Amino acid sequence: xxxxxxxxxxxxxxxxxxxxxxxxxxxxxxxxxxxxxxxxxxxxxxxxxxxxxxxxxxxxxxxxxxxxxxxxxxxxxxxxxxxxxxxxxxxxxxxxxxxxxxxxxxxxxxxxxxxxxxxxxxxxxxxxxxxxxxxxxxxxxxxxxxxxxxxxxxxxxxxxxxxxxxxxxxxxxxxxxxxxxxxxxxxxxxxxxxxxxxxxxxxxxxxxxxxxxxxxxxxxxxxxxxxxxxxxxxxxxxxxxxxxxxxxxxxxxxxxxxxxxxxxxxxxxxxxxxx
Length: 275
Ligand SMILES: [Zn+2]
Hints:
This protein has helices at residues 4-18, 31-36, 137-144, 154-157, 169-178, 192-211, 219-227, 232-235, and strands spanning 25-28, 45-51, 54-59, 64-68, 74-79, 90-95, 99-104, 108-112, 255-259, 262-266. By secondary structure, it is of the alpha+beta class.
């Protein structure tokens, strides 16, 4: 399942193909969407950005195309005028003189007027996206301090989309490890230092995973593990998928536990359980 960094890279690929070029084709698979899309005619796309697992394609007037791939949806970028061999069903075509961005198989697609996201059934329930420029450690500290989230344990809160959109399972383990916090600690019980460490770890690790295509540990750590013969899949994290291997800090074996329905990896010495 892709997480925020992977979805942001998919958005980058679409933005590179589409932004600031006049569209030659704008097509949707339903008559209702094509009627709505008349509002987008003769406009250029100015940005493509992720919001959680959704993508927003933004036009100069503030209108947006919302799409959510769920399990089956897939964007493909091909040279203009060509179409890939596929049995998938085509849902959206955004094409200019050089490239065509084609969305296949997704069923959750809307054309939204400016501000209309606020009443959209999916978007209106989402917290800020981890990669939005306004999602700073200071904003995250304020959200951690909100009474709305105080009773949630951190291991559940980090994946709770109304709190923050875009963090998935590998980032959850790695962020909690980096912040030296046990997943059962409740947001309302964090002290000032803990909230600061957690807020910084959220933005820093997501950004690093985006830049490095999935590494959460620092380059020096990843390189040292690769030299020892580990594969990249394992070497790229501090604790995630490293059960039984030594904690990078104290060398106690990394533990795997189920938490909020998904596997979580931690060091039980560095991340002390709440009393
Ligand atoms: Zn440790």
